[in-house]
Amino acid sequence: AALQIASQGKEFTQQRIKHVFLGPGGSRAQVDQLIQSKRIKTTTLEIQQSPAEKVAELLDAGEIVAVYQGASEFGPRALGNRSILANADNPDINITLNNCLNRTEFMPFAPMCLREGAEQYFINIDKVEHAAEFMTVTADCTDIMKSSCPAVVHCDGTARPQLVSSESNPFIFDVLTHYKSLNGKPAIVNTSFNVHEEPIVCSPEDALKGFFESGLDYLYLEGVIIALKDNKEVENDYLRDKFTDLRRQVSQYKKADAQSSERLRVFEQKNNQQQATISRLHTSSDALSLTLT
Question: What's this model's pTM, rounded to 2 decimal places?
Answer without folding.
Answer: 0.83
